[in-house]
Write a structure and sequence with these properties.
Layout lengths: L5 H4 L2 H23 L3 H14 L10 H29 L12 H19 L2 H12 L4 H8 L3 H20 L1
Helix pairs in contact: 2-3, 2-4, 3-4, 7-8
C-alpha cells in the first residue's frame, strides 16, 4: 500500500477526465450566464482543490463533489459581482443638492478628503479588502479566497474598518 498523498499519484488522464466531467456539469448549469468564463470558474475550482488538498478525501467521488461545489460558488460569485457592476453602470448620476451658499460643497470636500486620508492610512491588506468588497462588489468569501485567508478573518477586518469609517463620517 502506497503512503504517497492522493494528489501525487493522480495521472494526467485522471485529471483530464475529472476536468471534463466538471466542465460538462458546470457548463450545463452556467454556460448561458457565464459564457467563456466557465473555463475560468473550473480553473478556480481546481486551484481551490489544490489549496485544500490535505482536507479532501478522494474516496467516494469526493474530488468531483468538491470541485462541483467550488465551481458553483465561484460561478455565483462572478454572477453576483457582474450584476453589481452592471447596476452601478446603469445607475442614474447621484442626486445633487441645491446649495447656493457653498457650505454643502465645502462639507462634501472635507468629508471626501477625510475618507481619502482614512483609506490612505490603512495597511495594504485592509485597503484591498475594502476596495474589493465595496468598490468591486465581490463577496467577502471571494475576497478571502483571493487573499488566501479565512472568510471570518476578512469579514472581521472589514467590519472593523467600516465601523471606523462610520464613526469618522458621523463626526
Amino acid at each position: 500500500m502506497s503512503s504517497a498523498p492522493w494528489w501525487s499519484v493522480l495521472t494526467p488522464g485522471e485529471v483530464a477526465a475529472l476536468r471534463a466531467r466538471v466542465m460538462q456539469r458546470v457548463g450545463a448549469r452556467f454556460a448561458a450566464v457565464l459564457g467563456a468564463e466557465v473555463e475560468d470558474v473550473v480553473h478556480h475550482a481546481f486551484l481551490a482543490l489544490f489549496r485544500n488538498r490535505e482536507h479532501i478525501s478522494p474516496q467516494d467521488d469526493g474530488l468531483y463533489r468538491y470541485l462541483i461545489v467550488a465551481a458553483r460558488n465561484a460561478a455565483l460569485d462572478r454572477i453576483k459581482t457582474e450584476r453589481l457592476r452592471s447596476q452601478r453602470r446603469g445607475d442614474a448620476p447621484p442626486p445633487t443638492v441645491e446649495d447656493t451658499s457653498g457650505v454643502g460643497e465645502l462639507l462634501v470636500r472635507e468629508k471626501t478628503q477625510a475618507i481619502r486620508d482614512f483609506l490612505g492610512e490603512l495597511d495594504e491588506l485592509d485597503r484591498f479588502i475594502v476596495w474589493s468588497h465595496v468598490v468591486d462588489g465581490k463577496s467577502i468569501h471571494a475576497v478571502a479566497r483571493e487573499l488566501g485567508i479565512g472568510w471570518h478573518r476578512a469579514s472581521t477586518r472589514l467590519q472593523r474598518i467600516l465601523g471606523a469609517l462610520r464613526r469618522l463620517l458621523m463626526d
